[in-house]
Batch of 4 targets.
Target 1
Amino acid sequence: MSTALLLVLAIVLLLLAYFTYGRLVSRWLGVDPSRRTPAHELRDGIDYVPARRSVLLGHHFASIAGAAPIIGPVTAIAYGWGPVFLWIVVGGIFLGAVHDLSSLVASIRHRGRSIGEVVEAHLGYAGRVLFLIFSWTALILVIAAFAIVVARTFQEVPEAATASLFFIVLALAFGGAIYGLKAPFVPSTVVGVLLLFGGIWLGHVLPLRLPVDAWLWILFAYVFAASVLPVHLLLQPRDYLNSFLLYAVLLLGVLGVCVANPEIQAPAFTSLRTEDLGWLFPMLFVTVACGAISGFHSLVSSGTTAKQLDREADAQFVGYGAMLVESLLAVLALVAVAWLPAGEYAAFMAKGTSNPVAAFSSGLGRLLGELGLPAAGAKSFVALAVSAFALTSLDTATRLARFAFQEFFAPRRRAAEEGAPAPRLPLLAQNRYLATLISVAVAASLAYSGSLGQLWPVFGSANQLLAALALLAVSVWLAHRARRNFFVVAPMLVMFAVTLSSLGLLAWQNLLGQGQNVVLGVTAVLLLGVALVLAALAFSALFGQRKALSIAAREQPSR
C-alpha cells in the first residue's frame, strides 16, 4: 500500500472529525463563549494568565506530545500497521480528543483546578485523595523517566543539548518581550522562530559535552525553575516556540512522504500475540497511548491549560484540535518506519538495544532527503525536535506535580465554600517552592536509585487508567448537571476494560507466572484497587443521581 495514501487518508479523517464531531462534543459539554474563564476570574500573574489561543495551542501541544506519540506506534507496528493505524485514528477522534476536551471544560467549570477537584465535587473527599495520590505518583514517574531520557540524549547528541539550553534563554527573552515590554506579537514570533532555528545551527557549532549525571543535576534545577516561575515567562513561551519545531517536522514529513511515496513494507497484520509485547488486547491499547488517548493529557488540560484559557470558545481549538494534531504525528511516525525493510526495522528494535526514536529519525530523515535536504542533517533535525519535546513534557509534568501536591493539602471543597478555612498544612498547600522541591527531590531520588526500570513497565497501564478515571469523573459531572454523557461514558468503559485487563495480566505474570517481579505485581494490584474503589464511588454517584431524578419526576404533579 502507498504510504502517501495512508497519510492523506488520516489527514482527511482528522480534519473532518474536528469540524463535525468536535463541534458536537463542544455543544454537548455546554461550551459557552460568554462565560468568564478562571484565567480572568483568578488571574494572579503566576499560574492563572490568559493566553492567545495560538500560544496556548503551542504550549498544550508541546506538553502532551513529547516523544510518546512516536515511540508507541513505532513499537506497536510489531502487530502490523493496520491495527495501529485504526487505533490511532479511531481512538484519537472518539476517545483521546473527547478525553482532552472534556477534561479541559470540566476543569474551567471548577475554577481551573485539576480533575481531582471534579472528583471531590461529585464523588467525595475520599475519591479526591485517591485520585491526587495516584496522579502525583504517576507524574513523579514521568519526571524521573523523562529526565533520564533527556540526559542520555544530551550525552549522545551534544548538539541537541546546546540547542535546548539556547531555547530556554530564548523563551525567557520572548516572554519578557511580549508580556513585559508589550512587544508586537506577530513580529516577535517571527524573530523568535528564526532564532529558534538558528539555535539548531549553534548546536552544531558549539556542542556541549557533559556526563549523564551532570545533565540530570542541570535538568532537575531547570524543572524546579520552570515550575515556580510565572507561567508566561518561561513555560508558556518555551512550549509555544518549540511547537514550531514539531510543526516543521509534521509539514516537512507530510511533504516528504507525498513526494517520495514509498510502498509500505511492513505487513498489515502479523498476529494476535507477539513475544515482546504480548496479546494485541489489551497491550496495543496500552503501548500506543499518546496519539490515541493518554491519561497524562487530562492532567495537562486540567492543570496548566485550564488556567490560561482566554475564552471558552477556544476550548475546542486547543483541547480537541491539539489531540488530533498529535494523532497525525503518530500516523507520521507509523508511516516513517512502515516503509523500512524488515531487517532494518528489526535492527533498530532488537531486544536490549531498542531505539524507536532512532528508527523514526532514520526513516523520516531519508524521506526528507527527497525534498532536497541532506539526509544526515534531516535525521539530526528530527532527533533534535523529538528531544526538545521530551524536555517540554518534563517541565510541564513538574508543574503539574506541584499542583497535585498543593491540592492534596488544600482544604476540603465543601468546607472551603462554607467558611474558607486555612489549609490543613498551609506551608505545603500554599508554598509553591516547597511543593516543587519535594516533588523534584522524590523524582531525582528515583532517577538516581536505578529502581525506575522495575516500575516503568506498569506505567503504561497506569497512564491509561488515569484516562479512564478522568473520563469517569467527567461522566459523573455531566450526569449531575443533567446533560447527556454517552460520548464520555463509552470511551470510559473501553479504557476501564483495557486497563483492568492489562493490570490483571501484569499482576498475574509477576506474582504467579514465570519471571516473577514482586514490585511490579504489588504495584499492579494496588492500582487495580484504586481503580475499583473509584469506579464503585462513581457508579454509586451515577445511580444515586438517576434515582433522585426518577423520584423527582414521579413526585412532580401531573398537568
Note: The first helix runs from residue 3 to 19.
Target 2
Amino acid sequence: MKVQLKEWTRKGEPWVWLNAGAVALSTVMVLGLLWLIAVRGLSHFWPHEVIEAEYVGPDGSSQRIIGQVADEEIITAQQLRDAGQTVPEGVEVVRRLLVKVGNRDTLGFDFRWVDETSLHDQRAPTDLFVAERDEWGNFYGRLVRVFEQDKVVAEGEGAWEALQARIKRARALHDKIYAIEKTDIGSVNYAMERLRLKQRRLELEGRDTPEALADIAAERAALEKRFAAMQDELKVLYGEIGRDSFEAEIMTGQVVKVPLAKVVRVFRPNAMSLTEKVGFYFSKLWEFVSDDPREANTEGGIFPAIYGTVLMVLLMSVLVTPFGVVAAVYLREYAHQGALTRTIRIAVNNLAGVPSIVYGVFGLGFFIYFIGAHIDEALYPEALPSPTFGTPGLLWASLTLAILTLPVVIVATEEGLARIPRSVREGSLALGATKFETLWRVVLPMASPAMMTGVILAIARAAGEVAPLMLVGVVKLAPSLPLDGNYPYLHLDQKFMHMGFHIYDVGFQSPNVEAARPLVYATALLLVLVIALLNLSAVYIRNRLRERYKALEM
C-alpha cells in the first residue's frame, strides 16, 4: 500500500487532482456569484404583489400598511426583547420584512422594516395599484377618482379604465416634449454656441467684417425663430399634459391628488394574470436597457451608461492596438537583443502591475492639464477661458485606459511573434521579399491571433475599470450622448457615463440605498454580459484568423 501511494505521489497525480479541485471550486464560486447577482437584480423587475395589513407597534398602537415586500431577514426573538419589543412566548426566531411603502412625498420614507408577528389580517386586495413616477418614487394606494382640469370624469369602478387611457395620452405627450427638449432644442442650442464661437474667432483673427457679422446675425435670427416656435409648441404641450390628474387613498387614509404629467405607468399586480406579469417583466427589462435614468439614477434605465462603456472600449481598442503592435514588433524584430531591450521588457511587465488610479492621475496631469490645455490654446482660443479639451472627456479616458492596457497587448503580440518559425521568415526572404514585406505580408498576419488575444485581455480589464475614469471623463449623469447627429458627430471632448462608475454611484452615493440596491445587482450583471459580449466578439475574430493561418503555422 505504501509503495502504491509513493508511486502515485511520484507521478504527480495528487497535484493534478488538487488543481482540478481548485478549478472546480473556482468555477462553482464564480457561477454562484453570477447566480446571486442575477437573482437579486432580475427579480427587481417582477411585479410583486402589494400587501395590505394591520401593523401593531410595540406600544400597542395599530396602523395600516400598504406596500411590496422588498427583502426579509431572520432575527432571534431575544434580539427583539432586548430592544424592548414584546414577542409571544415560545417564539425563537422572527422574520422581519422590508416593506416598500412608497409615497415618499407624503410619508417621508420609502421603506419600513416590520416584524411578521406584528402584522395582522394580511391580504392582497386586487384594487390596490402601483404608480411609477418620475419623482418621489412609487405611489401605492386605492384609486378614488380621475380629474380633467379639476373636473371629475370618472370614479368608482370605471375610474381604472379612464386612468389607463389618460396615462397613455400623457406618456405620448411626455415623449413629444422629451424629443423637442433633448433633440430639437439641443440641436438649436448647439448651433447657437457654434455661431458664438465662430463670431469670437473672427474677432480674434481680425476678420469680423460687416458682411461676415451680417451672415452670422442672419443665421442666429433663423435659429432664434426656430427656438421660439419650439417654445410655443412646448407651452401648448405642457398645458395639455398638465390637464389630467387622479386622487387615491394611501395607507394613512389620506386622499392624495397626483398629476399624470409625472406618472410613468400604473398597474395592479394583484389583479394581473401570469401572462400579463411576464409581459410586464420584459417591458421593464427593455426599459432598463433602453431608457435614460431618473430619480437620482435609482429608477429608469441605464442606456447612456451602456453606450458610453461600449464606445469608450471600442475607442480604447482602436488606440491601443497599433501602439502595442508597433512596440512589440520593434522589440522582437528590429531592436538589438541586449541589456537595454531586456530592461525595456522588464519595465513593460512592471507597468502591468501599476495601480490603475496612478494611470488616472497621469492622464489628468499629462493629457488634460498639459496636452489638452495646449490644444485649447492652439485650436480653440475662441472658447477660452472655458476649456474644450483641457477638461476630462471621452478622448482622454480612452487614451488613459489605452496606456493602462498597453503592456498586455505588447506582451501578447511579442509572444505571438516569437512562436512564428524562423523558416517562414527565411523562406520569404529567399523568394526576394524585403524584411518589411516579410513582416507586413507574412509575419503579422500569422501573429494576428496573438494580437487579438492581447486585445481581448485589454478589453476585459478596461471595461471594468472605474478609478482612473473618475479623474479623466466619467460623470454621474451626462445630458447627451458623445455620438449624436450634431457635427462633428463624435464629440471626443464630451464627458460620458460608464457602467462601472454607475454601479459605484448608485451603490454608495445614492440618497436612497434600499431603492438603489436591486439596480446595483442588475447593472453589475449587465456589465458582465457587456464585457462577455465584447470578449466573445474578439474571440470569434481571433478564431477566424487562427483557422485562416493554421496551415502556415504547420
Note: The two ends are 46 Å apart (CA to CA).
Target 3
Amino acid sequence: MQDMRAIIISIFILSIGLQSCTDEDLEVENINQLALSSFYKTPEDVLYATNACYTPLAHQGLFGLRWYFLFGSFSDRTLFETSAMDNISINSSDSHIAMMHRDLYMGVWRTSHVLFNLQNVDIPGLEEEVKAGYTAQIRALRAMYYYLLVTIFDKPVFYDETNLPVDAYEAYSNGEQTQFWDKLQEDLEFAIPILSDKYPDEETGRITSGAARALLGKALMYKHYYYYERGLGGSQDDLADLNLSREMLYDVMSSGNYNLTEPKGVTQLDYINAVLCNTSYMDLPASDGSFYKSENNAESVWEVQYSDERVIFIDGDQWTPGGQWSGNMNFQWFYGHESSFKNHEAHPAMYFAFEDVTGHPAGFTKDPRTYASLFIDGDRLHFVEGEEYYDKFYLSGLNNKRVAYSRGLNRPGQPSLGFGPKKYAYPMYNDKDAPNNAPFNHRVIRLADVMLMYAEVMYLLGDDGSGLNALNAVRARVDMPAVAALTTEAIIHERDVELAFEGFRYIDLIRWSFDPEWGINWDEIEWGINEANSVNPFVVGKNEFLPIPLTEINVNRGMQEQNPGW
C-alpha cells in the first residue's frame, strides 16, 4: 500500500498535548526494516513512541479537518458553500479521502509497530507495570483506528503486530470485516482493566478505561448494523455483542466519573452554556458568576487535544493539524470568523427540527439546544468584554455565505436569513494565528452520546425502562419534557438535536439505514441542494462507505478490490 510505504520509509514521531520528540530523537538506520537497534532503548523512547500513536487522530485526515469536510458536509443538516459536497461528489481519486485513509493507516502502523517492539525488545529500565500501561493505551488506540476503518472503508487491508508490512513493494488484498471487529474487541478487552480511570492533569488526553469502555460499547452497537444487519452474522452472536455493548455503556454511565453539565441557574444563558461548554475552547459564564468548564470537563469521555501553540515549520507546510501545528483547521474552513472560508452553513431545516416548548423555566419557546447549536443573526460572537468579537454580532453575508437563501431554502417564520453552526465556533476564536491553528478540542465521545447509545442498545434488546430513562435524562438536562416511549423516532430525533454539528448525523443515518425498522428513506431527506429538494445524492449500495483510494488499488496491483459502486 502507498500509505504503508510512506509510513515504513519515514517514521515521523510527533506528540501533541503530551511530551514530544524531534527528528534527532529518532534515528532510522535501515528504512526498510523495523529499526530495532536504533530506537526503543530507554523508557523515554517508549513514551515518545506511545505518544506518537495518538497524533494521527489529530491530523488533517481525521479530526483536524477531513472528518468535518467529508461527513459534516454530507450531512443533511449542513450546507456546503457549493453544491458539490452536498451532492456527495467524491470519487476514488479524492485527496480528502486519501488523507483520511492515510492517517488511519498511520495510526494502525504506529500502534502495531510499537506493540511489536514492546513484545520483542528488552528495554532496560522499563518496569513491567509501566510497560503494561503503555501497551493498554496503544491497543485501545489501535481499536479506534480499526473501528473507523471498518465503518468507513468496509473491508480495507488488515494487519496487526504479528504481520507488520515490512516490504514496501509487496501487494496487499482486502481484509475481512471479522478481522477488524474481533481484533478491536480483543484490544479493548485487554486494555480496559489496565487503563486508568483518570490521569494526572499533565497527562490529560490519554485514553482512560471509561473511554475504552465507551468505545467498545459503541463499536459493538455499530457492529450490529454494519455486520449483522447486512446478513453477515448469526443472531446469537449479535445478541451477545449487544448485551456486552449494553454492559460497557452502562458501566460508563454508572461509574460516577462522568456527569452531564447541568444549568447552574434558570436564565437562558445557563441553559445555553451548560450545553455549549461541551464544544467550546473557553470556560463559559454562568449567571451566578461562576463558569461552566469546557474542555476535559465532567461530561467529556474522550477528547482529541488541540491548542493554539506555535510549532516550528517542517518541510514548508505549516498548517498540519496535530503535526507541525498544534491546533486544528476546522475553524478556518467551516465557521464564521470574518477571515475563515465559511464553507458550512446550517440547513434551515435544522432550526425547525428543534421542538417548540411551552412553560419552560427559562422562558424558552424552543428547545434550549437550538440556541446552543445555531448562530442566529444578531447573536453576540464573544462573551468577554474588550474582545474584538464581543462587539460584533452574527450577520448573514458576513459570517456565512447565505447559501440557504441563494438556493431558495429559507422558510417562513425563520428568525435568521442564515444559520451558522455554533458548536466548535463559540466564542469566536481570534487570537494568535486565527482563524488558523484553532484550539477547540474535538470531543470523540461525551456522556450524553453514551446515554443515547445506551438507549438505542436497550431499544434493540427490548427496553426494560432504563433506556427510556437515559434518553429522558439527556432531555431533562435542559428541562425538555420527557417522551413517553422509547421508539426509533425518539432516538433519531434526540441524537439529531443533542449532537447537532458534532460530526455524527451522516454516519448515524447510514447505520440506521442497514435496518429497515428504522425507516431511513434517503429520498425523503432534505438535502438542501436546490429549492425543490428534488435531488437525492445518496446511492444505496455505494455511499454507505467511502471508496478505497485509487492510489491504493493501483499500488496493490489488483489484489485489493474497490468498494461497490466506486
Note: The longest strand covers residues 300-304.
Target 4
Amino acid sequence: MKPSFFARLPRRLRLVLLWGAGLVLAIAAGALYANTVFFTVPPPPFQPLRAIANTDVNPFGANFFLEREVEAWKRERTVRMARDAGIGWARQEFIWAEIEPEPGTYNWTKYDEIVNLFRANNIQVIARLDRPPAWSRARATATGSSGPPDNLDAYGDFVQAFTKHFQNKINYLQIWNEPNLAREWNDSPIDPAGYTQLLKIAYTRAKAVDPNIHILSAPLAITLGESFSENSAQYRNMNDLQFLEEMYQAGAKDYFDILSANAFGLGNPPDDPPNPGELNFQRVLLERDVMEKFGDAQKAIWILEYGWNAAPDSIPDSRLIWGRVTEQQQADYTVRGIELARENWQWAGVISIWFFRQVGDIQSNNPEAYFRMVDIDFTPRPVYAAVSAAAKTYSVAPPGEYEETNPALVYQGSWSNLLEAKASGGEYARVADASTSSKATLRFYGQALALKFQRQPGAGRLFVTMDGQPVAGLPRNETGQSFIEQAASQSEWRVSVPVARDLMRGVHVVEMTSEGQVNLDGFIVAPIAPPQPPWIAIAILAGFALLAFGVGVLQARA
C-alpha cells in the first residue's frame, strides 16, 4: 500500500506540522472559550409578558403636520427621516372642516396620500379628529376656537364615515383634543360631561363600522386650572385631574380603549416626582391614579404630546411657557423619560414626541418652534440622533414573551389587529385578505423560538424560514417549504408551536408568509443557555497535550 502524502514527508517536517496543528487548536479553543465566557456581553434577562393590552408596542411616536405641507417631496423626506429614526407611530391631525366642507360631501384625496405615505414606511397612524367645519356650528370665536358642533351627531356622522373610509388602514382614533382648554371647547364653559357625550357618540358610531377600531380619549392639557398669562381668555382652562375625574363620573369609562395623556417636562428632568401642584413629565402618574380610582387599571395610557423645549437664549424668559433646557438636555431627557416609562410603568404604550418637524408656519422667535426633532431645512437636532440610537434597540427581541404588536415584528400586506378577549393581551393579528399573500418578519436574539396563534377550522398555513432556510422539525410541502398548519377541527386559543431550538448565539431572522386565513398572537424567545466550559477546557487541554507531545518528539529527534 502506497504511503500517504503526510507519511512521505520528512520526519522533522511532520513533527513541525503536528506542533503547528496543536498550536492552532489551542489558540482556537482558547479564543472560543474567551469569547463565550469572558468577552460576550450577556443578554438581558427574560422579559415578562406585558399584561395590559396596547403596551407591548414600539414606544417611539412623533407628531406630524403633513396636512400643512404643500410639496410632496418634503412630505416624503419627512416620513423617511422618521422611519430611519425608528419612529413607529405618527400622530397626525385630520381636519374635519377640510374633509367635509359641506354636510355629507367628503374630500379624502389629500389625506389618502398622507396615510399611504406613512403605511409605505411602516409607520402606524394615530388620527386626531377635530376642527369642525363652519356649517356645523352657529358660533365661532376670534380666538381660533375648535369647539364641538352644535349637534354632536354631526361629529358622529363624520367619525363613522372616517372609520369606514380608512378601515384596515387606520386603527387608532383620537376623539377631539384638550377639551379642558376653553379655546378647544368653543370658549364656552369647560364641560367634562359634554365631552363625555361627544366621546360616547364617536365610540358608538366608530365601533358600529369596525368593532376592532381603537378609540383614544382626548389628551388633556396639563394645567393647574389657571391661565398661562393674566387676562388671557384664550387659555381659560380646567385642571386636568379634575376634568378626568368628572369624565369618569359622567360614564366615560365605557367609551374609550386607551387613555390619552400629555406629558411635558417644562424644564424639569424626567425623574422629577409627581406633585398635584406642579406640571412635569410624571404628572401622568396622577392621571393613572384617577383611572385606578374608577376601576380602569386594565387600560393602557398613550402619551400623545411629550417633550422638552430647547429655546435659544435669544428668546426672553417671559415667553417660555414650556420652560427651557439645552439641546443636549432635550435629547437626554427625551430618551430617559421613555426608558423610565418602559421600565416602570407597565401600563405605558406609545409616547409621541412633540414634534418631529414643522412646515414653516411657526416663526423662529416663537419658543414652540424648539420642540422640533428636525429643522424646517431637514437638519436633524441632537434629540433626533438620541432617539435614533435608542429606538434601534427595539428592532430585535431579546429573550422574553411578547405580543404580536411588539416592534421586532414587521408586517407587510393585509395584516390587521382584531380585538378578542380569548387572545393573549386581548387582541391578535390576522390576515384581512386571505386571497393574497402577506408577510411578517421577526428579528430576535436567543437560542429557541415559539410562535403563538389560534387554531381554527378552515385556517390556512404559515410558511416559515429561519435565517433564509427551511426550518428543521416543521412539516414541508412538495416544494420543500416548511410550514405551520393552523387548521384544526375546533377553535383553540394561545397555541404555542416551537419553531427553532439550539440556535447559535446571535441575531436570527424569521420570515413568515401566509397562505389562506392565518393569524399571530405573539411569540416567545428562549434565553441564551450558559456556556459549557468543561468541554472547551477539554479541547484546550487536548491542544496543549498535542503541542507538548510534538515538542517533546521534536527535541528527542533533534
Note: Confidence is low (pLDDT under 50) at residues 227-235.
